[in-house]
Amino acid sequence: AYDMANKEFINYAGATVYTYKNLSLNTGILDIDGVALSVDYNVGALLNVNSIPMLKYLDYLHTGAFGGYRPNEDRKGAYGFDAQFKLTF
After folding, report:
1. CA 35, CA 77: separation in Å to the nearest integer?
2. What is the pTM assigned to this prediction?
3. Residues 46, 68: Cα–Cα separation, whole Å
4. C-beta atoms surrounding 39 within 10 Å
5. Is the pLDDT of residue 55 over 80?
6. Using CA atoms, how far apart are residues 79 and 38, in angstroms rounded to an integer?
7. Phi, psi dihedrals of residue 70, rounded to the nearest 5°
8. Rounded distance, CA 59 to CA 51, Å?
9. Three-state DSSP string of the chain
């Protein structure tokens, strides 16, 4: 994820709370000390990768935007864009 408020790439780990078609609402952790909500779209579902076995993992590619709070930064509010591969259990 890229935090546009603090102008840096950060770690984002989250879990999907709700999914509707290719959109998902997620909650997660920014770096180690922050929290965030994100809305993601499954862009991998738009790609026709069935004919290329190596690209089948792109089915899990999601991109979106997040907003959150990082207490140990000068600018505590965080917002930006994210891209992630989601695993399904």
Report:
1. 10
2. 0.80
3. 28
4. 15
5. no
6. 9
7. -125, 100
8. 13
9. CEECCCCEECCEEEEEEEEECCEEEEEEEECCCEEEEEEEEEHHHHCCCCCCHHHHHHHHEEEEEEEEECCCCCCCEEEEEEEEECCCC
Rounded average pLDDT over 16-45? 92
For the beta carbon of residue 74, count every other beta carbon within 10 angstroms. 7
> What is the rounded distance in angstroms from the CA atom of residue 7 to the CA atom of residue 3?
6
> What phi and psi values does residue 43 have, to the nearest 5 degrees?
-75, -20
Token representation of residue 39: 């809305």
For 78, other C-beta atoms within 10 Å of its C-beta total 24
